[in-house]
Each structure stands twice: as C-alpha cells, then as structure tokens.
Amino acid sequence: MATSLRALSALTLSLTLTVTGLGGPARAAGSGASLPDLGLLRDGRTPAALTGGTAFRPGTAKTALTDGQYVVRLREAPVTSYAGGVDGLAPTKPAAGQDLEPHSAAAEKYRKHLGAAQRDVLGDLGVTARQTYTTAFNGFTAKLTGAQATELAKDPRVAAVSKAQVVKADAASFEKTGKSVAGAASAKPAPAPAKGSGVVVGVIDTGIWPESASFAATMKAPRGWHGTCQVGEGFPASACNGKIVGARYFADGWLAMAGALPDGEVLSARDMQGHGTHTASTAAGLPVPHAMVLGRDLGKISGVAPDAQIAVYKALWGGSGTDADIIAAIDAAVADGVDVINYSIGNAMGDYQANSPIGNAFLNAYLAGVFVAASAGNDGMSGMISNAEPWVTTVGAAVERANEATVRLGDGTKIVGASMDVLPSRARTPIVFADRAGSVEDGAQFCLGGSLDAAKVTGKIVACDFDSAAGAVQEVKAKGGVGVVLFQTNGNARLNVIYDFPTVYLWSTEQAGQIFNYLWAHRDDGTASLVTGGDGSSVAGLPSVAGLSSYGPDQVHTGLQKPDLVADGVDVVAAVSPMAGGRLFDAYSGTSMASPHVAGMAAILRAQHPGWSPGAVASALRTTAADTKATSSPLQQGSGLPTPARATDPGLVVEPSAESLTAFASAAAPDGKELNLPSIALREYDGLHPVRIIRKFTNVSGRTETYRARVEGLSGMDVSVNPKTFTVRPGVTATVTITLARGSATWDRYTTGSLVLSGNGHRVRVTVAARPWGFTPRPYDDTGIEFGRVSGLGSGYLEPGFTGPLTGRTTGYTPVKWSKKQLSTTVSGGAFAPGGVGTQGTKIVVPSGTAGLIVQTASDDPNLNLDLYLYKDGKLVERSWAFWHSNERVARFFPPPGVYTAYVHAQSTYTPDVPYEIGVTVVPQRAEEHNATISVPAQVERGGNGQVTLTPVGPQPDVQRWAYTEFRTGRTVVPGLLISDR
C-alpha cells in the first residue's frame, strides 16, 4: 500500500516502480581499529532467495522431477546414529549420557564404508558428487537430470531425494547506515553459576568479524575439540584465537546453484554481512565494560555465555545459502565437537515440508548430544514457523525494551513510536510529507536517494513512507533536513536502527494514518517535535511477543508446540561486521537475534550439567520459563521467556527418547503429541472422545521430592491428572497420565493453559494448547479466524475431525442489506486512520446469538481501489485490502455482540466523489427462514471429504444471501459454515 499527498487535480495515470539499494560503499568509521584491506565492500541488499524444492521418497515420486542440484539422503545411518548391524563395523552411536567420538577408529572405519556406498550409488548413476556427508547426514549433493533424480528416488538404497533449496538469515532487516557503534550483545541474563566455560557454540551463519572486541580473548581449545581454522581470503589462521576456536566456510552448494558469490563476498569465514557476527556475539560475546554508542555510554553489556567458545561455520553468502552447504556445515560442526549450534536461518513463509534434509541433519546432531537453537521466522503470522522439528528448540522474538519516542504534532496529537537515536529537543519544527518535498517519479514519498528537493527540506522534519529506511535517512540528511519520521502503512513490526540522526519509527497502520491525516490538513503549516520517551503504549507490556515473530501452530507437523520459547529479539545491540555499513556494533531485530540468546543459555546449562542431553537442556529451559506480559498463549510465546538461573535447577526434566524421534522422522505424516516433550499440543483432537497423553518426568534435583499436579487455564475442557501427587527419587522417572476431553470448549478454536507440578522448591510447567476439530480444515490461528468457514454457490466443503452419523440444520438464507454510499475525498491514496481523510464509517449492531457477520464492498469503477476495515471498541478486528479492486469482504464467525464500525478507505481514486456500495449481513444462529433445505452425508469419517448443500425453497430474490449451518452427531452439536447462495 503506497501513500500520497498529491491532490486529485494533480493526479496522473503513470505508475512508477523504483528499486533501490544502499547508497555508496560502507566504511568503518570512528572505530580506531585497523581493518583488513579486503578490497570488497558490501553494497546493496540481501539477494532474493532462489526457488526451493520438495523431498521425494523412494516409490512416491509422482511429480515430474526437473534438472538441477539435488540433495540425496541414503538409508544407512550416519556416524552419529549408527547402532551396528554391518558385519565388521562396530556401533558409532554414543551411549546415553556419552559424547560422540567422531574420529574414533570405529567412526573412521564406518565413515569409509559410507563413502564406498555413496560412490556405488553415484557410479551406478554415472554422476559425480558435488559434496558428500557422513557424520550427521549420510548422503551427497549432485547435479542431476530429471530422469536421474527420478531413478534415484526409486533406488532402495536411497531414503529421500530433494531439489536443492535456498534459505535465508532470519533478521528483520539488513539495512545499515551511519558510523561505528561500540557494544556487544545487549542480553543481560540472570546470574547463573557458570557462563559456559568449556562449551563450544557452533554458529552456522554469514561468518564472523574476528577483530571485534567481543571476541578479543586468547583461550585454549577445550577437551574433545577436533575442529580447525580454515584459512581463506582475508581470514588468516591467527583469526582463530581460542575464543574463536575454529572456523570453516561452505560455498560449493551456492556456487553450484548461483555460479558465483554475491558481490561484496569473500571466499572465507570472514563476515561481510554482519548477521553472523551479531548472532555469535549475542550467544557468547565477551563483556564490554563501557559500550560507547555514538558517544553514549550504554554501560556494561555482554553475550549470554561469555566464557563459552565459538566455532564459525559460514554457509550464507550475502545473507542466503543452500541446504547443501547448511548440511555440510552441520556435518562438520558435529564432527568438530560442538556442544551447541545456533541456526538463525529459515525459509520464507515457514517450513513447507516435514523431514527436510536440514531437519534430518539436525536430528542426528541432537542424537549425538548437540543442542540446536533455531529462529522461528519473521513472518509475524500463524502457521509460518521455520525450523519446527521436535529436536530443535525453535525461538520466537520478544520485546524486552521499549526504546520509546514520541512524535508531538502541532495540533497536540502524540504518536508513540520508537527510536534509538538522540532526539535534539522539544522545540516545534516544521514537518513536511516527503511526497510534497521532491519528485514523485523519483520516489520522493519513500525519500529515495536523489528524490528530495533541498529547498523544501532544509530545516524541516520529513515524514517518509518506509521502503529503504537507511536510504531515507541519508537522503533527508543530505538535503538539509533536521529529522525523519518513518512510517509503515501495512506494518506491525518494530525495526529500530541506530541512524545517528534524529529519527522516530512508527510501525502500525493506524500511526501512519494519524501522521498522514495531520499532514494533509496542515500541508503548509505542519509542525512537530521528536521527543525521547513515551507513555508505554507502543507495546502491550514488557516483555511481550514481538509483532514480527512467527507463531504457531506449525503448518507441517501436528502435535507440536512451536515456537518452543521466545527471547530478546528486538533492538538487540551486538557486534557486527563493519563491511555491512561501517559499524563495529549495531542494533538488529528478528528471531535471528532471539535464537542465540537461547543458544547461550544452553551453553551455560551444558557447562553446569555436562551430562545433560539436548532434550534435558530444552526441558529445563521450557518448564521453568515465564509468561510474557501480553499473552500466555503457547501458540505465540511457546513455553515463555527462559532464564538460566531458573533452568539450572528445574527439578524435573521431560525429554523424548531417541527411538521416538527417529520414528517421528520416518513417518509419512508425523504427529508429535505422543512424544515425551515439555508441552502438549493437540491441533486436531477428536472432540467427541477423551485424549490420553503420557508424560514421563525424571528427577534431576539430587533429592527426593513430592510433586502435586494442578491444571491452570484450559477453560471449557475436562482435564484429569493421574497421579495427582507423586514422590520421585533422584534419577528416577515418574509417569503421569493427562486425560483431556472437550467440555464446553468452542469447536475449532484453541483452548490454552498448562499442567503445573509443584514440589518442595521446584515448579515445573508443561504448556497445553488444544483444539477440538469439528469441520474447519486445520486453521492455524489460535483465535479460530474464519479459515475455511466461508463458502459460496450454495455449498461447502466438509473435512470432519470425528467419525460418526451426521445430520444438518440451517437457518435459511438472510439477505445482504446493501446501502449506496458516496465518499468525498480530496486525496488519492494516503494512509488509513479511523475517521481520517478519504474514509467513511458505517455502524453495525451485532446482537447476542449471531452466527456470522459479513461485511462487503462493491463498485463497478475499475479505477477505484477501496480497502475495508472492521473495528470494535476502537480496536481493529479484521481488514480486507486486496490489491487494486473494490470488492472487499470481511467475515466473522460467532462474533462477540456489540457495536462494530466498518470503515471504507478510498485507497486510489480519480474523482473526488467516490460512489460505492456496502453490504452488511448479520446471520442469526437460531433463525428459521424456511427458504432453504440442507443435505449432508449420513455418515462421516475423520479426515474424510464431504459436502453440505443448500437447496433454495420458494422465490429467489435478486440479492445475495448468507446462511448458517450446523451439524449434529449423536447428541453433540458442531458449528458448521457460513454459506452464500452465489
């Protein structure tokens, strides 16, 4: 959605698309450090990800495979999980509580066996491997024709064939600008007995900047370390000083796919991007006594586990990488002997397949005793979780500091946003919308480079529509402006950056509308002041889940709670590469920044409890985590916010067996509800029958303790726990059975809560999220938003979550009440705000007992673009803003009663008078219109396909109508669908 402050009389029919990168080469400034002369500077943005692929298992490859790079996994176990069975080859899988010996005689002998088997497969096919793997993954990558890939997929020696895919770093933004900043990770974990001494954290990322003060310590390699320091361009052996205990780089997969490294990259472990240095220093950076940021002393800051050592595995190039290189990095990290891996990398829009090659490699790393923390993704919506495997601790982002700043407009309006810059004063200053301060054709509304007119900007604050934030600030500064207000018309995420220039960032649609409407009313006399601080309204509470953080449930696996945890992920200050924008330290945001916090905590726990498995570490962090302020839903926060102080002594741990995880990985449709995890996730439970879940708790406290069970939350569910009280000795495991059944809980919507075990000094919490599956096909949102509830043409699709007889009932059709409206406006475009310019509201009263509320807009004008927003009690309920048309629709199933307001916003128009129609339908739940009959299947099967059909009775009016349907199986009534007759 673009914004414009051009009056209608000045509109043209042109459409200009402008793409820009960062301006000019970046240089380190103000650091006082001598940097290597690499001759390559980062310039531009992160490359767009290439297309991904799908895994095919032997005998199932029905889709035609095309030519390209493939990852091939063979059936034999890799070194990490080989339990024996081949004559003459001893097992290499470590025993419980033991470390993998990746370079033992048995391991090397088995590795040779795997290599020979790989060569046999390749030789039979007549191809050469690009990369081979044996430690955490048994397989290879190779360039294959579609026919060769299809042949391999049928080979009994092959477990899976996957088209190579590209993954990306999970930082919210790579845009940097300004001078150097001193500081390390801003994490300040609660005191714990150890800080990670003797533990190696492997960081798979964009590399590292070894000269940073965050890594300036000489340390000895820990016992059991087998890694190396791979020399490369601009990366000598001396870069590994012990704090950086090892470094490798992996580019074969990238080069095979892209042909060359991205501009500005070097073939070494040196970080030219900044992301890898940031995550490494967040997890295990050294303390910095005085973090000086643009002359401001932020005090002492530190990585989470400053005594841990760092092993670098560069597998991202320009911020993106291939799964082939990622697997090679995992394989090497496990062979080198890392204890923890941080993986701040993911797929756009979340995971799209279960049991991916990367996921399989991480499984084997887990089985070898390596804890893996990974980012959840930055899509900011449900069902878009990355790295959702049960053996990976998936981390969402939390806001732990507000960094508020206020834009005070001349009419007294206060808009609370955020800033990490020094704001000059409270004095009112002229403010101008960027669209009126330069060339629209050159992208003035976004403050693109060269677009602004210095005569119109000098001495003023400029309001810029967010596109390239760094470029906007540079342009305003270059043209004599004195401040910047950045706003997003379709945003929901905080993306603070230290600009070294007075800048306030506004991230919500409503905030964009506020400033837009003020500037439209005060085109020539607008004033504003930029003030540090705010009223706390920018966040729902501290800490809270960040708006950018992807949340659950996972769309690929059932029975898993994802994310597992949330951690500090917004405005995190840590070391970066100066090649990324001339800084040695910077503030980044994203789940990329959250994951290394948990990796660092895991390092602390591994140092304190070297015999704990990765599952025990994950359990300790999760069962002792605390709720965020704004939500306690495990679908958003997972188990909550962890701290090592609590997790060091959890009392009990609950962890899955290796056998159960291996079986999960081998399943065609994996379901994790039976895994012994510190959470219970029932995305699709049968609401007609009770569900019994078993969890096994092991006492790790060192003393006998009695625990009492209680249930918190889970409103509308009948829950029993057996036994309610139990006593468990040190090292002994107690089995607890939890029985859950739907009572009055709403069908197809989540109920959340937890099972709490309270002992003598310990509190163990297992979070629960349960959804009784009625007829909606797997909605992902925990509010039960109308995914799959609305249908047309007099029929609807049924996918029942239960088995049994079925009858149906309908209210009959309720006609849409259409009203002709005319919206008067003096602007085309702009940003929406309730009651603002170009906006008209319609009040809607929704009584109790309403089954559905449908609001629609319509217009025949092809040059008109309307957007629709539905509000209740001053809060946005839902919006519809499809690109470039006016036929919008919002629908709510069982809406709460009250007064709603539907706002229509003229996003684009070519006339000051905008005629349109708005249609409102309030469908009662109990009405009997007797103008339609219903037909449904007499019997349904769980997961089967069915159809409900409404047949009109009597005269058919020439107006659209909506009906509510519900169903009965036995004595149970299950809500159905909202169906339109056209």
Describe the structure.
Keywords: Hydrolase, Protease, Serine protease, Signal. Belongs to the peptidase S8 family. The longest helix has 21 residues, at 105-125. α4 runs parallel beside α10 (591-608) and α5 runs parallel beside α6. Helices cover 15% and strands 31% of the residues. The chain has 5 domains: 55-163, Alpha-Beta Plaits, CATH 3.30.70; 169-399 and 543-652, Rossmann fold (3-Layer(aba) Sandwich); 403-532, Glucose Oxidase, domain 1; 678-744 and 757-770, Sandwich (Immunoglobulin-like); 790-980, Jelly Rolls, CATH 2.60.120. The protein has 14 helices and 53 strands. A hairpin with a 4-residue loop joins β17 and β18. The radius of gyration is 29 Å and the shape is globular. The strands form 13 sheets. Strands 7, 8, 11, 13, 15, 16, 24 and 25 form an 8-stranded mixed β-sheet that branches. It has 982 residues and is α+β, with helices and mostly antiparallel strands.
Low-confidence stretches: 1-62, 173-193, 782-786
Instruction: Please give the count of helices.
Output: 14
The global form is globular
Whole-angstrom Rg: 29 Å
**CATH homologous superfamily caption of the largest domain:** Peptidase S8/S53 domain
- Main beta-sheet annotation: 8 strands, mixed
Distance between the termini: 30 Å
Identify the CATH class of the largest domain.
Answer: Alpha Beta
Number of DSSP E strands:
53
The multimeric state of the shown protein is: single chain
- The share of residues in extended strands comes to 25-35%
Helix content: 10-25%
Please indicate the count of domains: 5
CATH overall fold name of the largest domain: Rossmann fold
- Estimate the mean pLDDT confidence: 87
SS-based class:
alpha+beta
Architecture per CATH nomenclature, i.e. the level-2 architecture of the largest domain:
3-Layer(aba) Sandwich
